[in-house]
Amino acid sequence: MAGRKSPPSPEKSTRPAAHPDSATGERLQKIIASAGIASRRKAEELILAGRVQVNGQVVTELGTKADPAHDHIRVDGKLLHGPERHRYFMLNKPRGYVTTSSDPQGRHTVMEFFHGRARGGERVYPVGRLDYASEGLLLMTNDGALANQLTRAASQVPKVYLVKISGRPAEENLDQIRSGIMIDRGRPGEGRVMTAPVKLRLVRDAENPWFELTLIEGRNREIRKMFEEIGHHVEKIRRVGYGPLVLDLEPGQVRELTASEVDQLRLATQRGKKPATAPGPSSRPRPAAPAKPRRPAASSATPRRRRP
User: Where do the structural domains in the chain lie, given as residue ranges?
Assistant: First the structure.
């Protein structure tokens, strides 16, 4: 109809676009993670893929800053509505589940334990990974900032595992693992890397023994690769501790963390500070070392007299 103005395109905005050199605002990946859309690492992938817009303009440069209170930020066309209430859960992941939101092969994912539950509507994501055949403690949250801190190598947050292997390894081979051992970095051909020192002790002696192992890093399939390097196949891996947290659930069960546990997790990410840890497998009492024989005490029948 003549004289009728068409509505303005939703892609246009009178607000200035975000700029990577801006001294104000927050980084886009942090804003997206705080809104519960994805982890910070996944948010970076969304930005690089051109799926994020700020004030109508596509942003593909990492480090770009924006103001969530004033800028219009969209992910896949959907407007962000500010940060969600942060939620934190512990899941005892069973074997046979992948630690992803979806799986192209159609395998079961850990997200199935959060479907149909009264979680307040927030969508949570796994912190780090446990591989398909591994089980145990898995953190789930929509707090992208904390998830990023927990998974950073520099944080050195300890993770405790119970590991069952085939055969009895020699003590000198176990010492290799304790002090650091060369493993394949990733896929074949990507080179080799030295692992960080670990704590390793026998917890159940048998033909196929169980060990307790404490890591401060999280390389892909690291535990399996370490034992393969000394000629032993890993049969089972169960994570039983993560920083101050200790697994206290049956397989497939979920519980929300307490405020105190979340605070302890935050403290655990601060390098150089050692938060108080809850009692767990690594704090079980060990047999006391045999007492050393004492030397006989000197005779005190005739005490010395001091000279005047």
Answer: 26-79, 88-277
**Mean pLDDT throughout 6-24?**
49
- Selecting among 131, 184, 205, 263, the annotated active-site residue is 131
For 259-298, how does the pLDDT look when each residue is reduced to its tens digit (9 = 90+)? 999 999 999 998 644 444 444 444 444 444 444 444 444 4
Examine the residue annotation and report whether 76 is marked as an active-site residue of this protein. no
Top-tier CATH class for 88-277: alpha beta
Give, to the nearest 10 degrees, the angle between helix 222-229 and helix 171-179: 140
Q: Which backbone phi and psi does 224 adopt, to 5 degrees?
A: -60, -40
Domain 26-79 falls in which CATH fold?
A: 3.10.290
Model confidence over 60-69: pLDDT tens digits?
Answer: 999 899 988 7
Phi, psi angle pair for 281, to nearest 5°: -60, -35
> Which two three-digit tokens encode residue 168?
């009895």
For the sheet with 73-75, list strands across it: 57-58, 52-54, 73-75, 78-79
pTM reported for the whole predicted model:
0.66
pLDDT of residue 224: 96
Calpha distance 121→83 (Å, rounded): 13
